[in-house]
Structure formats: C-alpha cells, structure tokens
C-alpha cells in the first residue's frame, strides 16, 4: 500500500483549494495566501499546489517569478525596493545604490545576514516627478539622496 506523507502545509493548501476551487484562476489567490502566511512559497508548496490543481510545477513557478510580490525564496523582514526605471536613473539612482550597498554591506538582490533587509529593484513606482524613489515594505520615499537613503535604512534596522 502506498502511504502518502502529508504535512501541515499540504493541509493548508488543501483548504485553500477547497476555498478557491481547482480552476487555473485559483492559482494566484492560493499563491497570495501562502505568501501572506509564510512570507515565501517553498519548493514543496509549489509542488503541492501544482499537484492539487493538476497543473505543471513550472506553471506555478513562472507565476511566482512574474509577480514581484510573490517570492520563491525566504526574504528579510523588510523589503527595500529601489526604482530602476529610466527617470529615477537620470535623477541619480546610481549614487543612491552605492550608498545603500555600502551601508548594508550587501548588493541588490541579497538579504542582510541578520535577515532584516532584502534589497531589490522595482520598476516605476509612479513617483517619477519625485525620483529617485524607494519603497520600504508599503511606504514610499521620494527625492532620495545618498544621505537620505542611509537615514531611511537606519530607521528600519
Ligand atoms: S521612474 Fe522611478 S518612480 Fe517612475
């Protein structure tokens, strides 16, 4: 007899499939809830979601990588996203990048060792007339200078 091992994450996903249904359109709300509850969507969760929705795991992974608010890897407690789009570029983004990376000792795309901050780039934050713009979790900061960026980082650390 085949014994299928289950864990609490499987149970949680089964409840979500029950709630949202087994259609393809259920994938995004299920991913959003797993992201909200666990801060990222593990390989195991991706496999289980694919199995329960009867779709290929690559489809689950490609949706996660398409949306910047979904993560396939654990991230820091605070997500700092700097706009990398052209207007912010022209308004001095590179100097802000250098100051932030120097202050934290990590590069964009990385997380501090203490797990407090993950640095990411974002596309236009809709504040182009006040760039460079930065998003710290849900809060937007504008007209950044290297000094202002360091002050903001220190306030979230
Ligand atoms: S280009 Fe940076 S906020 Fe729009």
List its salient traits.
157 residues; Arc Repressor Mutant, subunit A; Glutaredoxin; elongated; binds FE2/S2 (inorganic) cluster
Topology:
Elements: H1 8-20, H2 27-38, H3 43-53, H4 57-66, E1 78-83, H5 86-90, H6 93-104, E2 117-122, E3 134-136, E4 139-141, H7 146-156
The structure holds FE2/S2 (inorganic) cluster.
Offer a concise description of the structure.
The chain has seven helices and four strands; from the N terminus they run ααααβααβββα. By secondary structure, the protein is an alpha+beta fold.
Structure overview:
β3 (134-136) and β4 form a beta hairpin. α1 (8-20) runs antiparallel to α2, α1 crosses α3 (43-53) and α3 (43-53) crosses α4. This protein has two domains: 8-66, Arc Repressor Mutant, subunit A; 78-156, 3-Layer(aba) Sandwich (Glutaredoxin), CATH 3.40.30.10. The longest helix is centred in the first third of the chain and has 13 residues, at 8-20. The protein is elongated and about 50 Å long. It has a four-stranded mixed β-sheet, with no helix packed on it. It has helices spanning 8-20, 27-38, 43-53, 57-66, 86-90, 93-104, 146-156, and strands at 78-83, 117-122, 134-136, 139-141. The chain is α+β, with helices and mostly antiparallel strands. The chain has seven helices and four strands, in the order ααααβααβββα. The structure holds FE2/S2 (inorganic) cluster (FES). FE2/S2 (inorganic) cluster binds next to α5.
